[in-house]
Amino acid sequence: MIFFSNFLFNIKNSFRSHDRYLNIGLLLSFVPLPFVGFIALSIALIGIYFNYRGKFQIDESRRLILILIVSILNISLSMIFAVNAYSFVNDIFIGIGKFFDSIISFIFGTTNTYI
């Protein structure tokens, strides 16, 4: 029980010690939507610019690299999932269309290809 309370306390302190917008970017980078991943990626890129300029109180390079990697993985995996889901649904609709086409062809005979 002490382990879990220390673990949660360390996470809480980690979020308190880093910049608020980078914390939002980190949380957004875990949301499995491509658009939200692009927002997290843009926060990371803007944060890299600000970190390079020395605008943060502490060095945020490790947090920025984490956000950058996780958001790129998030965008890639969610886009792969979206394309596969689209392909699956498209195949279902094409199958339904072919089914109705075969029924109409069976009922009315051969189809006129010149129309």
Helix/strand structural class: mainly alpha
Residue fraction in strands: under 5%
Number of helical elements: 4
Largest sheet: none
Radius of gyration, taken over Cα atoms and rounded to an integer in Å: 25 Å
Q: How helical, in percent, are the residues?
A: over 70%
Average pLDDT over all residues: 85
Uncertain runs are none
Q: Give the topology string: H per helix, E per strand.
A: HHHH
Overview of the molecule:
By secondary structure, this protein is an all-alpha fold. Helix content is 82%, strand content 0%. The protein has 4 helices and no strands. Helix 2 packs antiparallel against helix 3, helix 2 runs parallel beside helix 4 and helix 3 (34-53) packs antiparallel against helix 4. The longest helix has 48 residues, at 61-108. The radius of gyration is 25 Å and the shape is elongated. It starts with a helix and ends in a 7-residue tail after the last helix. The model has no long low-confidence stretch (mean pLDDT 85).
Summarize the structure.
By secondary structure, this protein is mostly helical. The chain has four helices and no strands.
Give the helix/strand layout:
Layout: H1 2-17, H2 20-29, H3 34-53, H4 61-108
Helix pairs in contact: 2-3, 2-4, 3-4
